[in-house]
From TrEMBL, chain A:
One Pfam family linked to the record: ABC_tran
Gene name linked to the record: occP
Protein name, per record: Octopine permease ATP-binding protein P
Source organism (scientific name): wastewater metagenome
Subcellular locations according to the entry: Cell membrane
Keywords of the record: ATP-binding, Cell membrane, Membrane, Nucleotide-binding, Transport
Amino acid sequence: MNETSAALEVRNIHKRFGGLEVLRGIDLRAGSGDVITLIGSSGSGKSTLLRCINLLEPPNEGEIIFDGESLALRRARDGTLVAADQQQITRLRAGVGFVFQNFNLWPHMTILENVIEAPRQVLGYSRDRAIADAESLLEKVGLADKRDGYPAFLSGGQQQRAAIARTLAMHPRVILFDEPTSALDPELVTEVLAVIRDLAEEGRTMLIVTHEMRFARDVSTQVVFLHEGRIEEQGPPSKVFESPESPRCREFLASHL
Amino acid sequence: MPELQGFGAQLAAGAWVTTQVAVYAMAVAVVLGLLGALAKEAPVAPLRWLANLYTGMVRGLPELLVILLVYFGSARLLTTAAGWFGHNGYVELSAFAAGVVALAFNYGAYLTEVFRGALHTIPRGHVEAGLALGLGRRRIFRRIVLPQVWRVALPAVGNIFMSLLKDTALVSVIGIEDLMRETALAVGYTKEPFTFYLAAALIYLGLTAVATLVIHTLERHTSHGMRTLSS
Ligand SMILES: Nc1ncnc2c1ncn2[C@@H]1O[C@H](COP(=O)(O)OP(=O)(O)O)[C@@H](O)[C@H]1O
């Protein structure tokens, strides 16, 4: 991993909610093609870290570097760091996809409309090009027949796959997954994990917060264990899962495998 | 149909004026309501105060009084303002415009609360999904928030329109030749109050029936993707 190949890097991220210090200095670097899974007990700050990367949550300290470009930040009145350059943050958000735990599809739009909205508006695609793109992506996630359906009439697994298609439609360089299967009924988890696995095999760069340990072991190039806002253990899955140094990580794995 | 002694055309003209007052006032009220709702949710405190002052005032005043205040108050304001621009003499809003503004002022406050309630039903995640894809705030509001607010609010907005339609009768006090005033004139000439008030009642019922139909059609058109309504 040399300096130039990092697709995404964060340095010294701190985040407080009121008096609660949720992230206490996180450094993380994703090279092109890396699949990094973030594990750790609930409340350790995994989701917050992911949300700080594309500034859905403004961090209190830190630096975010995407595609070799450090994001310009300025301090807001409440002490958090917000984007200083609107075009730059738009570029970052367009280039870094985010898949939410509860899908967040727009319920008044069909699946196809959900998928083409951002490419048309942000990437400036023509309607025809956006639709052609969307159709092949829906095909890829197994939802070609649902293009004109509305989100409320799809199962959770289908909604999440549609949400992944919506993210892929932006051709992101990096995709962040925030517990993509935690809101799903157990029997629907596999179909969504299968889609994410395919993406991993394509060599996409991804950061995944998950509680699915077997999945994490299979797809990751790197596993990061978070504890109370700090990285407590980090390495290839073989090392983290089989011989973790941190006793807390051992404990966590013992209760989650 | 009772014998209208040649006043039928006048009542029809009045009904048309009533319809126009109602539709224009509603359009302005919707804009005021959306602005009011956004102001109430704004991070800027003075905007919230202003919006609260607005809805509080309307809640505390009889509608008739607001209509009279707008009519006479606007004339003062306009005359003074025209004075600044070198125009001497009395300037006033036409009775029609004053009636529309006054009704819109009242109903905009009711719609403020309706739209604010509807805004609260839109999950924060819908906005975040837009932000995460790089969509701008204005685009997110127009394409994702507003259509959902609209369809959530529509039933209540429909009810509010019905009561606005009936309240247009109040504007006859400032001389707008609406259905109520034309009816009163006809009564004055013919001395047949029951006949003409009954005719007016039938026309109002006709208008509200049409309004109900339009509202239902709108609801059907905006309910796509909603499980409860479309299934
Ligand atoms: N918007 C928020 N406001 C206040 N506290 C929050 C907010 N979001 C998360 N937290 C708190 O931050 C901590 C970390 O949350 P989170 O990042 O969701 O952890 P994880 O994803 O590891 O379960 C939790 O204690 C949570 O309650």
